[in-house]
Design goal:
With 452 residues, this protein is mainly α. The protein contains 20 helices and no strands. α3 runs parallel beside α5, α11 packs antiparallel against α20 and α15 runs antiparallel to α20.
Length: 452
């Protein structure tokens, strides 16, 4: 573990921990990025609403935002419990919750049932991310090694997006060959969107089998055994020592999530408006969004790897985040307002580049936050910033984009994807600009070691 200039020198159990962390981060993204791929077909089947109509836009906004509200509220509680009960225990229960909910959502017989189950999925994901980051950071206390482990394991979050795009493509192609979903109220027992949702249980299996047997955070366990572990407190996050970090990071995470939910995740709603897609057969057209989403996630993977390299080579945290913010100011309006309304072929490239800067910056916070809060506040602080800032405020930009898309006086459903593209371009540029301005107020960590 001392030779950090070459390959990581880890023990076998540490390699297992890293592999399980990779699966966990990938699974989180897998679950979240299901919705953009299935929302169009699921709303049409469960409500009969047509894309571009007020009813469709209403349910689309609800499916994107209501689960985020649930995830933020219960995720904040989960962060508190992570500090109170331990990282490993909370991790295990969060995985059970969203694995079961993901599988059951494939049996949804009403839009309300789907919404409730998506809320449960989000709660599990929000809790799992915070507990996993705190757990990993404390299992690898050596600064350089910690930065590498957090950076490279989080990079595989984007691989989860690639996997779900691939899974959705397979479900679209082979859905009629899969076993029928036998449940009351299911109109189409071979609907690809149902199989895509149910596939979320598959990556959870190795996590449930192995993670409960991995070690607890040693520093948390030792403090708990010695009776020196302070009780976590949400109010303490706003004490003078942590107030600026809590407020600025929460707002910046809101902007980071806003770029993905308000713009990137709207691509499946934008793509049907392209002339090349309109000329395709319905079966071929349904597979295009998953291909574009997969390419965008490869861009996100490239961006997260860029972050992993920058995190151990650049001292200033402000400089690291600006590597993504400054190019994003140009990339987002060009990709969404220009390319996404004109050319499918160019959109494949544009989605990749947008993924680099919009998705790549998300890994920054997993490396940054553990260095800003002490042990008894680590899970609570991370959870507040990630869930209240990122999940509650940030994901609301999906609803904002949907709302902006309804303001155009043109009511034709055929024009709906273009309206969504212009709305996404506006949101993408705005959140990158606000995030860049906020970066001037971002506190720099005072030391490389984790505060105790």
């Amino acid at each position: 573990m001392k030779n950090l200039k070459g390959p990581l020198k880890l023990t076998p159990i540490q390699w297992v921990i890293c592999v399980i962390a990779v699966i966990g981060f990938a699974f989180d993204t897998y679950e979240i990025l299901m919705l953009p791929l299935v929302v169009r077909d699921s709303i049409r089947e469960l409500t009969g609403a047509v894309p571009g109509t007020p009813a469709f836009q209403m349910w689309q906004g609800r499916l994107f935002y209501y689960p985020a509200i649930a995830g933020a509220i219960f995720g904040l509680l989960g962060g508190y419990l992570t500090d109170l009960l331990g990282r490993r225990r909370v991790l295990t229960y969060s995985i059970v919750l969203y694995a079961v909910s993901a599988f059951m959502s494939g049996f949804s017989s009403s839009i309300q049932m789907l919404l409730v189950l998506r809320c449960c999925v989000y709660i599990g994901v929000c809790v799992e991310f915070v507990a996993a980051v705190a757990w990993l950071a404390e299992l690898f206390p050596e600064p350089k090694l910690r930065e590498r482990v957090l950076g490279f394991t989080q990079a595989f979050s984007s691989f989860g997006g690639v996997l779900v795009a691939t899974a959705n493509g397979l479900c679209v192609r082979f859905g009629m060959s899969l076993p029928a979903i036998a449940a009351a109220g299911v109109a189409d027992p071979h609907a690809p969107w149902r199989y895509t949702l149910m596939s979320g249980v598959i990556p959870a299996l190795p996590l449930l089998l192995i993670r409960p047997f991995l070690p607890e955070s040693p520093v948390w366990r030792e403090k708990r055994a010695a009776g020196t572990l302070k009780r976590p407190s949400i109010a303490e996050l706003f004490a003078p020592a942590y107030r600026r970090t809590t407020i600025v990071v929460s707002l910046m995470m809101a902007m980071s999530f806003g770029a993905t939910f308000g713009a990137i995740q709207q691509l499946p709603q934008i793509i049907p408006g392209l002339s090349e897609v309109r000329a395709m057969s319905p079966t071929d057209a349904r597979g295009v969004p998953s291909r574009v989403s997969g390419i965008e996630e490869f861009g996100g993977l490239a961006g997260r790897l860029l972050l992993a390299f920058a995190a151990v080579r650049i001292v200033s945290r402000r400089s690291v985040i600006r590597i993504f913010q400054v190019p994003g100011l140009l990339v987002m309006p060009i990709v969404f307002a220009v390319i996404a309304t004109r050319s499918l072929n160019l959109l494949y490239y544009g989605a990749f580049v947008a993924g680099i800067f919009a998705v790549g910056q998300l890994s920054f916070w997993g490396n940054y936050l553990p260095r800003m809060f002490p042990i008894h506040l680590r899970g609570t602080g991370e959870s507040f910033c990630a869930n209240v800032g990122g999940r509650l405020i940030g994901t609301s930009f999906a609803a904002v984009t949907s709302y902006l898309a309804t303001l155009s006086p043109t009511e034709s459903p055929a024009y709906a994807p273009t309206k969504m593209a212009f709305a996404a371009a506006s949101i993408g540029f705005s959140v990158f600009l606000i995030g860049f301005i906020l970066s001037f107020f971002l506190p720099e960590p005072t030391q490389e070691n984790l505060p105790e």
